[in-house]
Amino acid sequence: MDLFEYQGKELFARVGVKVPRGRMATTTAEAWSAAAELGGRVVVKAQVQVGGRGKAGGIKLAEGPDEAAARASEILGMDIKGHVVHRLWIEQASEIAAEYYASFTLDRAAKKHLALVSAKGGMDIEAVAAESPEALARLHIDPVIGLTNWQASELVYRAGLDRATARKSAAALRSLYDAFVSLDCDLVEVNPLILTGEGEILALDAKVTLDSNAFFRHPDFESFREAFTVDPIEAMARERDLNFIKLDGSVGIIGNGAGLVMSTLDLVSLVGGSASNFLDVGGGAGEETMKSALEVLTHDPSVRVVLINIFGGITRCDQVTGGIIEAARILDLPWPLVVRLDGTNAEQARVMLAEVASDRIVPAATMREAAEKAVALAGEG
Ligand code: GDP
Ligand code: MN
User: Fold this and answer.
1) What is the dihedral sign for C-alpha 128, 133, 136, 139?
2) Which residues surround ligand 2, an ion (CB under 5 A)?
3) How many angstroms does the Cα of residue 76 sit away from the middle of ligand 1?
4) Residues 318, 332 within the same domain
5) 15, part of any domain
6) Which of 101, 177, 234, 372 is catalytic?
7) Is residue 205 domain-shared with residue 145, that is, in the same domain?
């Protein structure tokens, strides 16, 4: 799970990585009070999960609360590469003497952690890697041993960070690595990690990806999810353990397996339609899951028809079909269903479907036929 900058910094502060003091704000009034509380110069930062906010005008300095409120009103609602700004992070402005880059990730091929450090921070790290790869110091870290003091110092030296403050930089790298490990992250990237005028090392930006498989060790991380749940239908689907993503079209899609659902979306587009969602019911879906998925779609007013595409492996087509028929009976579905099934027990499922086939439940023999029928029923294509 990718965190917003302010969430990453909140975690950094908790585990001892130095960050500027800051406050979250969602309105200009909150931005004003945050700036007043922090005092002095502040930076108003758009909280969107995309890089290059600075260049896009989503990061602005302000001299005090009034200016912070003015900058906040400019940034709130701004569209940064397709991400609309709903939240701001207001933090004490830092005096920047140097901008570094530091990241820790998992190198699956090497079965080790990988540290990347550079004195060329603040800019696009891909550009640094392409234009001056020697400026990017790399080090594989044995996860059992961890990042030792001398390794951290060597990284600082190789990356060409300021010599006079090398000890502090090495300590900062070690605390970032500790954060990466103790918080069970897939990625910790800080760009820029800065050297301040007073010789302190601070994380000025934070890109943190948490490993959701480790959430059982961090029950409090669940609260981070709330910040992402803007769409009420997505929230409902999440409560039911369904993988749902809202899209723009009118053909509701239900399938099992991400790959199958993606190719269903492609086929719908290919025959001239547009999907209203991505919904993967996962492996081993039975009656209950099917009912649950259909019920979620009934809350989406843009759906005009639902295309169900199931491949039976562990999932048994006859069970799924039972669920579909049952759901259609009790839920009073507002739209027709087009159903295509193949795989385990597909024969039985087709017989069941043929018995109930009508203008409300439309069986289809192939994916292509299903897509064409659904798109026609949606009045598209
Ligand atoms: P990004 O553009 O989305 O990566 O956002 P960053 O948080 O990395 O900020 C971009 C740039 O804004 C940084 O590299 C800094 O140059 C500048 N910036 C951010 N915070 C401060 C601050 O407190 N003081 C100053 N002077 N510049 C800042
Ligand atoms: Mn950055």
Assistant:
1) positive
2) 191, 205
3) 17
4) yes
5) no
6) 101
7) yes
Residues 243 and 354 in one domain: yes
* 259 and 340 part of one domain: yes
Residue with tokens 């839920």: 331
Helix (H, G, I), strand (E, B) or coil at 25: strand
- Residues 256 and 261: their CA atoms lie apart, in Å, by 7
Distance CA 237, CA 232 (A): 9
Q: Which residue has the tokens 């039975």?
A: 286
- Per-residue pLDDT 10s for the chain (381 aa) are 899 999 999 999 999 999 999 999 999 999 999 999 999 999 999 999 888 899 999 999 999 999 999 999 999 999 998 888 999 999 999 999 999 999 999 999 999 999 999 999 988 888 999 999 999 999 999 999 999 999 999 999 999 999 999 999 999 999 999 999 999 999 999 999 999 999 999 999 999 999 989 999 999 998 888 777 667 888 888 888 899 998 989 999 999 999 999 999 999 999 999 999 999 998 777 788 999 999 999 999 999 999 999 999 888 999 999 999 998 988 889 999 999 999 999 999 999 999 999 999 999 999 999 999 999 999 976
191 lines ligand 1 (CB under 6 A): yes
Domain boundary among 171, 197, 224: 224
Distance (Å, whole) CA 352 – CA 318? 8
Give the CA dihedral 76, 80, 83, 86, nearest 10 degrees: -10
- pTM as predicted: 0.72
Which two structure tokens, joined as six digits, stand for 265?
Answer: 């979306």
Of 175, 202, 224, the position where a domain reaches its end is 224
**How many structural domains does the chain have?**
3
Together in a domain, 75 and 132: no
Query: In this structure, is residue 309 part of a structural domain?
Result: yes
Say if residue 102 is in the same domain as residue 168.
Answer: yes
Among protein residues, the one whose CA lies closest to atom 17 of ligand 1 = 54
* Residue ranges making up the domain that contains 175: 96-224
Q: Pinpoint the alpha helices (H) of 166-205.
A: 166-182
* 11 falls within a domain: no
Counting every residue written for the chain, the total comes to: 381
